[in-house]
Specification:
Blueprint (H helix, E strand, L loop, with lengths): L6 H4 L14 E8 L3 H13 L4 E4 L15 E2 L7 H8 L1 H12 L1 H12 L5 E10 L2 H16 L6 E5 L16 E4 L1 H8 L8 E10 L1 H15 L4 E4 L4 E6 L4 E5 L2 E10 L8 E4 L6 H4 L4 E13 L5 E5 L16 E7 L8 E13 L13 H14 L10 E11 L6 E5 L2 E8 L6 H16 L10 H8 L2
Helix pairs in contact: 2-8, 2-11, 3-4, 5-11
Length: 464
């Protein structure tokens, strides 16, 4: 068994000491969770309001899901647009998609304002499809994009494909045909199972390094209004009519508003003294999946890329929708003190975390998952060096999935003292950025328009 060894955590080289909460404190806003969602929420709140902010992290900043992901920047939902429209309505879904895509600009703003040096790479990314059902599913999604003024995905189908004539007429304007060799080249594969390619903007970055750098900026820029306490797990969140009290270690944090930016699996209790029970509902708001990833070093002779592969079957996925896939990113990476290497990261295998089970970050990686990734690379990634490849990294991370696959961003309906920015749903970096800005608008007292991200919609899905 291989230990949980993330390349993003290894690259941190942090020197900042862990400072746990050692006294009772007061703040206007308490943020729970020091991953990308919590730190970006703090950034926008400090930038756009005059409020004092305390950030509480049970372990270390960026050492949770933010430091144990594949680092892919993507602006899509894990559910297709047409399916979301059936649940939320066309207007809210289209605006929600635009909101997530706006996070590309937010990322640029944060980098410029905080003078972030962590590199982020933007490029055209690709996805490979291998079945008729997959193709129709994505064409239907593209129909909604085109009809509602969203940028469409570029979809290319293999001209020799024997199901080409079966594509419904309503989708004929949404794709092009080309020799299969052309789309296989885009997908960097020799596997002829793939009969379609999708193209759209993607990117990649070390989100842990980004967050650690952003925390340094906040500590230096907002010395009078920002406090950070690591190694400070929250035990209890007690909500009153207009305030909250958090029990942290043997101390308390009093605040006017509290924002949960966690993956939903922390062992704390929420007590609402001013309304209906929240605790039971909250702890069923996010379902856990453990995602497994591997990475290896290769020469710096190819550009950054992000590619998703939808095989005909994927037995090691926890996705019940049939849309399970492998994902691959490639980017420059410092290795052994040198900058002349690429890091190729691949993930896809997942396991469901049973209700009530504890995720242990220190657990070794699964041999089954590592073998599945290796077999996928061998069969589908043409640039894979073969059986002799030495994996420098193997890691896993806990992802939080809301029941409806949409991030939860906004005030708790039962007590608006509590707010959420949580639920990565597999592609969490860009939605986290948009979520941080949206939360800051609530905290500022602005009128914030209804959206598909509202916690109320999540509760409806649960039948509560």
């Amino acid at each position: 068994m291989i230990p949980n060894n993330s390349p993003w955590i290894k690259q941190l080289n942090r020197t900042r000491p862990v400072v746990p909460l050692d006294k009772n404190v007061r703040a206007d806003v308490a943020i729970v969770g020091g991953g990308i969602a919590g730190v970006v929420t703090a950034f926008f709140t400090l930038r756009d309001t005059d409020k004092t902010v305390v950030l509480l992290e049970a372990s270390k900043v960026a050492h949770g899901a933010t430091g144990h992901n594949a680092g892919q920047l993507a602006s899509y939902f894990e559910r297709p647009i047409w399916e979301l429209v059936e649940e939320f309505g066309r207007e809210l879904v289209i605006e929600g998609q635009r909101s997530v895509e706006s996070a590309w600009i937010l990322l640029d703003q944060i980098v410029a304002e905080a003078k972030i040096k962590t590199p982020s790479y933007k490029f055209t990314g690709y996805a490979g499809l291998s079945s008729f059902d997959q193709v129709v599913r994505h064409l239907k999604n593209n129909r909604y994009r085109v009809d509602h003024d969203l940028l469409p995905e570029a979809i290319m189908l293999a001209e020799h494909w024997d199901r080409l004539a079966d594509i419904p007429q309503e989708f004929k304007d949404l794709y092009t045909v080309a020799p299969q060799a052309d789309l296989l080249k885009l997908l960097e594969t020799n596997n002829t199972d793939y009969i379609a390619s999708l193209s759209y903007q993607k990117g990649c970055m070390n989100s842990a390094l980004f967050v650690e750098e952003l925390v340094g900026y906040l500590l230096a820029t907002y010395k009078d209004r920002f406090s950070l306490y690591e190694g400070s797990p929250v035990k209890t969140v007690t909500l009153a009519q207009d305030s909250a009290e958090l029990e942290v270690l043997i101390h308390t944090v009093e605040c006017a508003r509290v924002v949960l930016c966690t993956n939903g699996f922390e062992h704390f209790t929420i007590k609402n003294t001013a309304g209906p029970d929240i605790d039971t509902n909250f702890h069923h708001l996010v379902n856990g999946r453990i995602g497994y990833m591997s990475g290896y070093i290769q020469p710096l002779d190819q550009p950054p890329v992000a590619i998703s592969y939808f095989p005909k079957t994927n037995e090691l996925s926890a996705d019940p929708t049939g849309e399970s896939y492998f994902y691959l990113t490639r980017r420059p990476h410092e290795h052994e003190g040198k900058n002349s290497y690429n890091l190729v990261c691949t993930g896809g295998p997942e396991k469901v975390l049973p209700n009530g089970a504890e995720y242990i970050r220190e657990d070794a990686c699964s041999d089954d998952s590592k073998n599945a990734i290796h077999e996928f690379l061998r069969s589908s990634y043409a640039k894979h060096p073969g059986e002799e490849v030495e994996y420098s990294f193997c890691w896993h991370g806990l992802m939080g999935y809301t029941p409806n696959g949409v991030r939860c961003i906004g005030p708790e309906p039962c007590n608006k003292v509590l707010l959420y920015n949580l639920g990565c749903n597999g592609v969490g970096i860009l939605p986290s950025l948009f979520g941080g800005l949206r939360i800051s608008r609530f905290l500022k007292g602005e009128h914030v328009e209804p959206s598909i991200f509202d916690p109320h919609d999540q509760r409806v899905e649960l039948g509560i």
